[in-house]
Write a structure and sequence with these properties.
InterPro entries: Aromatic_CoA_ox/epox, Ferritin-like, Ferritin-like_SF, PaaA, PaaA_PaaC. The protein has 310 residues and is mainly alpha-helical. It has 13 helices and 2 strands. Bound molecules: fe (ii) ion (2 copies). One fe (ii) ion binds next to helix 4 and helix 7.
Length: 310
């Protein structure tokens, strides 16, 4: 009882809950699920762009893309470490991912068909990730909040490298401009889906907001992203593929068209264009890495043996 009051006091005062503090089981479970899902998204998210590293059009583009994809691996590692502070087991989380028992962001189940997709992912997908993640820098669980501060700094580089690539392509040939437009056409709606189902159907939002894990609803964040992106699209010279998209002076926001939620649920449910491929690739990478984990464990055991002798 007293512990519960202390927890509620900490959350209400906007202080951070730390790993050794008492916390309700539901809070711990919700955080493990959310952080694991976030970590999986970072790791699976390396695949669509990793697909283009060997075919980058210049050394400069290749260096940028390599750095970006490596950053995503780092984000995954911070987040798995944050989940471990809650008592989660890393091996277990990986098993749940490759067995399809835990989710990752459905955006990464779409294919990258051209190099313009690298730019559009940076601009829209990393852009949406920033809108989602900036409020998480103030989330109530300390290790998650601190991980997000560093992640967000890197995400802003990701977004800018994408936008800069697109600006360059838009100054190029007509074929390059067409390539960018087609890529925007493919990624726009899935990017809006990144904020999750509408508030009326989001089962976890209310409790997560009470615990101050979440600070804004899915629809609020989606609106913020649309409002932020429209002027960027204009500057770039691309058309966002939504005939209903227009400024609403009364609301002070852009109105936009209905999202195809049937598609969203289909992809989340495992039946998107690349779900099977993403999981198979992750499983193989994990299996191929077994010798590295064994070698690291053997080295650690040898080291601790040496220390005991000394
Ligand atoms: Fe990331
Ligand atoms: Fe990123």
């Amino acid at each position: 009882m007293e512990l519960e009051h202390e927890f509620e006091r900490v959350v209400a005062a906007d202080h951070r809950v730390e790993p050794r503090d008492w916390m309700p089981d539901g809070y711990r479970r919700t955080l493990i699920r959310q952080i694991a899902q976030h970590a999986h998204s970072e790791i699976i998210g390396m695949q669509p762009e990793g697909n283009w590293i060997s075919r980058a059009p210049s050394l400069r583009r290749k260096a940028i893309l390599l750095a970006k994809v490596q950053d995503e691996a780092g984000h995954g590692l911070y987040l798995y470490a944050a989940a471990e502070t809650l008592g989660a087991d890393r091996e277990d989380l990986t098993a749940k991912l490759v067995e399809g028992r835990q989710k990752y962001s459905s955006i990464f189940n779409y294919p990258t068909l051209t190099f313009a997709d690298v730019g559009v992912i940076g601009w829209l997908v990393d852009g949406a990730a920033i809108v989602n993640q900036v409020p998480l820098c103030r989330t109530s669980y300390g290790p998650y909040a601190r991980a997000m501060i560093r992640v967000c700094k890197e995400e802003s580089f990701h977004q800018r490298q994408g936008y800069e690539l697109l600006l360059t392509m838009m100054r190029g040939t007509q074929a390059q401009r067409d390539m960018v437009q087609r890529s925007v056409d493919r990624w726009w709606w899935p990017s809006l889906m990144m904020f999750g189902p509408p508030d009326t159907e989001s089962t976890n939002t209310e409790q997560s907001m009470k615990w101050r894990i979440k600070r804004h609803t899915n629809d609020e964040l989606r609106q913020k992203f649309v409002d932020m992106t429209v002027p960027q699209a204009e500057k770039l010279g691309v058309t966002l593929p939504d005939p209903d998209l227009r400024w609403n002076a009364e609301r002070g926001h852009h109105d936009f068209g209905e999202i195809d939620w049937a598609e969203f649920w289909q992809v989340v449910g495992g039946d998107g264009p690349c779900n099977a491929q993403r999981i198979a690739h992750r499983r193989k990478a994990h299996e191929d890495g077994a010798w590295v984990r064994e070698a690291a464990a053997a080295y650690a055991a040898k080291k601790s043996g040496e220390e005991q002798v000394a």
